[in-house]
């Protein structure tokens, strides 16, 4: 059994000032019944990323129900860590508040960009999110000296928050020198984070030099992580863990048939796993890092980790 692709679901019309193109990094939040609000990163005419949303009825025949008129987060003021753009990582609900973790962009001179991780919060999915601070909650340090990318946050237990995030392992940002893996940080409140540079999922596959945008669901007693992996081209990879600490790669469960032409022929990236009606679903981007929008797939058949669950 494997993933069944349901096709492209949404791409911006280009009519909104903040969403001229792209629907990158789809991030689902359940609203009610079959309705999910997918937050995503769009680009304006200056190619700066903003975070907005689209409501989708999730089923074997998904359909768009509504689109945000304005973004929930736009680039920050000049001089802040996100003045060149804001790209979503994840949203987690903690009691009556939503925590939105995102990646802020600064354009560079000697290097094209640098990134850090920010936090915004809201008591409702229908309003704007307020930044926790003009500065990031996770930035460059001696253990992360280069750049940080898309966070995935889970609350494992009371006072036990964990963040998986991308981190460059070397200074280079070009094809030959780029090395990017997934690291882990810990927090007691979701705001103040501690880390020691530990790599949660490292580079292993032949010619692989990037692992980015982790997403995690719990299946019984097992955690399943998916992420985008880049060698010759972008594809999806996966890892599993019983304790959310030690991860083993199982990329084979994220294989797609990539022989038919279409919106995701050349690239499959930026996954988001989620459960709905006792089925495992996947939102993901196709060609052009979200230029063709995002689509859905659903897992057909037996438990995706049946051989491990026992």
From TrEMBL:
Q: Which organism is it from?
A: Bradyrhizobium cajani
PANTHER family recorded: ARABINANASE_LEVANSUCRASE_INVERTASE, PTHR35279
| The name this protein goes by in its record | Glycosyl hydrolase family 32 N-terminal domain-containing protein
